[in-house]
Write a structure and sequence with these properties.
There is one protein chain. This protein is α/β, with parallel strands linked by helices and 250 residues long. It has one domain: 3-Layer(aba) Sandwich (Rossmann fold). Helix content is 46%, strand content 18%. The chain has nine helices and seven strands. Strands 3-2-1-4-5-6-7 form a seven-stranded parallel β-sheet, with helices on both faces. Strand 1, helix 1 and strand 2 form a beta-alpha-beta unit. Bound molecules: NADPH dihydro-nicotinamide-adenine-dinucleotide phosphate. NADPH dihydro-nicotinamide-adenine-dinucleotide phosphate binds next to helix 1, strand 2, helix 4 and strand 5.
């Protein structure tokens, strides 16, 4: 099915690994020109660049730490120079840690908020001059924020914050035809999952698979499917929403 995405321009944050990489590659395969960013140099950067080159299109993989406001401004400046507009923004980059709440330092609280909330806010704010009628902004949330998870109070707080941000921006920018939605993910198999020892992997797949209606974990490509829909005209009346990509987890 042709979603008529060819030639659209997208920014996906944190696209070198995990869910973001799946989204970047799926969009590129659909003919979208993609800019993505990462925080740390790694082998994932070069391998993504190679894959994107093979796919074809006008793609750019740039270093920009979203927890640094001037780097976010620099990133969006480059996007503006290269594309002149954006049809899709995906706030995917996310930081996480597992710390007992009583021991959570204000520095660690600030570190997670800086990427997950302030970073997403600054990406959207700096992208505004490039967004127009029909543009779509997608933020990646987590079912963990509905469920509540011990040791992740700071992380879940950030994912809940994205929901409020999303709903307000949908109302503020709806009159300009810009849509805002949150994809609420269940447990997704990324490189981190595949790098686990076999017994841990099995345990995790069984434990979380059993909590889902579909009886399994999700894949980055399955998250990308929802992003493709939100990027397309098929979702033109969908805004201010949270859409679960979670296999029916509860
Ligand atoms: P990964 O840790 O595998 O990848 C995160 C990506 O974001 C990397 O490319 C990383 O770059 C980048 N990144 C992180 N911090 C920054 C920053 N400050 N500036 C720029 N780039 C940054 O994450 P996942 O793929 O697992 O998760 C992606 C999103 O999905 C996150 O928002 C996460 O909270 C959410 N999510 C994931 C779930 C899962 O099961 N995987 C479940 C629910 C939600 P680098 O390589 O340089 O570190």
């Amino acid at each position: 099915m042709d979603l008529e995405l060819r030639g659209k321009k997208a920014l996906i944050t944190g696209g070198t690994r995990g869910v973001g990489r799946g989204i970047v590659l799926a969009l590129a395969r659909a003919g979208v020109d993609v800019v993505t960013c990462y925080q740390n140099d790694s082998e994932h950067v070069g391998s993504l660049e190679r894959e994107l080159k093979e796919t074809g299109g006008d793609h750019h993989v740039l270093r920009a730490d979203l927890s640094q406001p001037e780097e976010v401004a620099g990133l969006l400046g480059k996007v503006g120079e290269r594309y002149g507009r954006l049809d899709l923004v995906v706030n995917n980059a996310g930081a996480i840690s597992h710390i007992p709440y009583a021991e959570l330092s204000v520095e660690e609280w600030g570190r997670i908020l800086a990427t997950n909330v302030t970073g997403a806010h600054l990406v959207i704010q700096n992208a505004l001059p490039l967004l127009g009628e029909g543009s779509s902004v997608v933020s990646i949330g987590s079912r963990a924020s509905d469920a509540g998870v011990p040791l992740r109070a700071h992380y879940t707080a950030t994912k809940s914050a994205l929901v409020g941000l999303n709903r307000s921006l949908a109302k503020e920018f709806g009159p300009q035809g810009i849509r805002f939605n949150v994809l609420v993910l269940g447990v997704i198999e990324t490189e981190k999952f595949h790098a686990m020892p076999e017994d841990q992997k099995k345990l995790m797949a069984e434990r979380y698979g059993a909590k889902t209606a579909l009886g399994r974990l999700g894949t980055p490509d399955e998250v990308a499917g929802a992003v493709l829909w939100l990027a397309s005209d098929l979702s033109r009346y969908v805004t201010g929403n949270q859409i679960g990509v979670d296999g029916g987890i509860s």
